[in-house]
Amino acid sequence: MNWEDSLTNIKGVGPKRKEALKNRGLETVGDLLSFYPRKYIDRSVLGCPDSISEEAEISIRARVASRGRVQRIRGNLTIFTLPLLWEDKKISAVFFNQPYIKKALEEDQEYFFYGKIKITGSATKIINPQFVSADNPGNFFELTPVYSHIAGIPNNAIQKMVLQIFDDDLKIKDHLPESIRKSEHLLSIKSALKVIHLPKSPEEVLRGIERLKFTEALKINMGIMSNSFDKKYSDIVITAFDGINPVMNRLPYELTKSQLSVIDDMIADIKSGQVMNRLVQGDVGSGKTVIAIIAACLMAQNGYQTAYMAPTEILAQQHGRSFKELLDGTGISVEVVTGSIKAKEKKEILERVANGEVSIVIGTHALIQEAVDYYNLGLVITDEQHRFGVKQRSRLSLKGNQPHTMVMSATPIPRTLSLILYGDLNVSYIDELPKGRKPIKTYCYDEASFHKIVGFLEKEMQKGRQAFVICPFIEASEEMEEVRDTETVYDQLQEKMNRIYRLGCLHGRLKNDEKESVITAFNRGEIDCLVATSIIEVGIDVPNVSAMVILSAERFGLSQLHQLRGRVGRGKHQSYCFLVTNSKSKETLARMKVIVNNSSGKTIADEDFRLRGPGDYFGFKQHGLPKLGLLNPMEELALINRTKIIAEAIFQSNEKEMMNFRDEVLQSFYRDIEEVSFT
Ligand code: ADP
Ligand code: MG
Prior knowledge:
EC 5.6.2.4, DNA recombination, 5 domains, alpha/beta, DNA helicase activity, hydrolase activity, disordered C terminus, binds magnesium ion, isomerase, CATH 2.40.50.140
């Protein structure tokens, strides 16, 4: 079988499965082999009763102590609790919505159970475990790859398909030159894919991942080098610089020293005659937007257009408002183009962009996927928050006539890393917050204190402030009854606040216009308390909000918590953030402490890195979750550095194999780099 062969060559893939696979973008053998397992289940680790930890996923050998009982909870949710004896420790197996399991487990018999451990008070539970008779465990202990769900195709069917592909004499060309593969002690691409899909041990999987990540990192380095090969002179002529002064004078505040120096950097870039490539790095709330506005204004006054890409539609709308407000009356026209505006309106706007009537176009990243014709694009600003998409940036830059580029980022990346990632892009740092900001008072509580916290929110709202309540999920989940969701919390608060305060709810499943109207209402102060998912993390800016509660806070990463908290404390009021978690795990509490005690994104990122440790490279240790197809540059700096040297050697080599490889990579660069997303 070959890489390009259709998946219909595999036994068992009929029209129905073909369609299901196609919906996931899987049509060829190569597509399926690039569909990496989301995680692996390793049931071979047997836990021991005196050393268990919360949240761990382990196997235990236990005896069914009694028959257990099925409880019916609201609606059609059932919980089957089965008491077990694990050596001499009591533990219960808890099954959500699987009452039929009661029949499958016999009293006084021994089984292996595999699942997540929960400890509440003195009770220990294993949640929704898989199980097998201890007398006949079959293949229970083999490492099992788990793929993202594809409707209509069970996990083991994917495993069988992959097995067939490898059994049927798979041919894959390895593009990586043999000499590099040998000197770096890497697996061939075929062996790497084989151990990733059909692993015998976790060590094997790591070897496979190492090979794939190596190639990804190498390609990124080669792409960046090829980019910086052609030094670009700019055709954009900017002569009038003082047009921005009136706009700066209109600001209701004074710019910070850092902000002013970024503006100086930007002006110096533009005066240099070369194409500007500038990364503006500043913590949440440091005031990056106003710099974007001033840069765009400079372009407009010299007759050039600016495209501003926001990470989400909500943000695009919000920035649209900020730009329009500040540029009102200057004659500079600003338009927002997003997926949700009506076709007719969009067509009109795009026409006005094409004939130069619109100076500033704001939109989501999707903006660049569509054919937007600019009259004369002078500047592309990308607001990346904390995502990087190397490819997207390059692509939009290709559209105009070598426009200047500015990237706004809140990710505190180490300087060396930004050099590698951004190549010759220059970096400006905003390392101070606007004057008068009070540090956000942050606390960590358990769920039992939630009603007290709500009381606190009510006091704030009584003073005219607003509040956020953040939940990890949208709706209640059977598997994770203890994790908060916006629906349940909204209902609870509605009841508690006795309809005195106005509540709103915001999450990703609302339609775009529904989201928009919730946000508008919140902005106008027509909603006092917004219950939301982390959707608000990206840049919502409402200075009147003084309190935030983050429920099931252990579910969020540290940098995400920092981003979320950055949504409060944007005005003159003292602001508060409450992290709420019921977790007793030492690690979780240490993580919460980092947020409670620190306010700088940089320190939090460093602490995060320190707590997780370099040993936890692929997250294998904690979650058994290697992340494939994802390179995390913060953690894999060493790999990026190592491949940088090799990339340089490839560019200098005149060996045939090396040159061929270089050509192949460069040709496929724009296609491939898109698949490498940084998180
Ligand atoms: P971010 O860097 O996270 O994108 P924003 O640009 O959204 O931050 O700015 C956060 C808030 O700070 C906004 O309400 C903005 O108007 C305000 N702001 C920006 N610069 C200053 C300043 N120099 N002084 C006071 N407030 C400022
Ligand atoms: Mg911002």
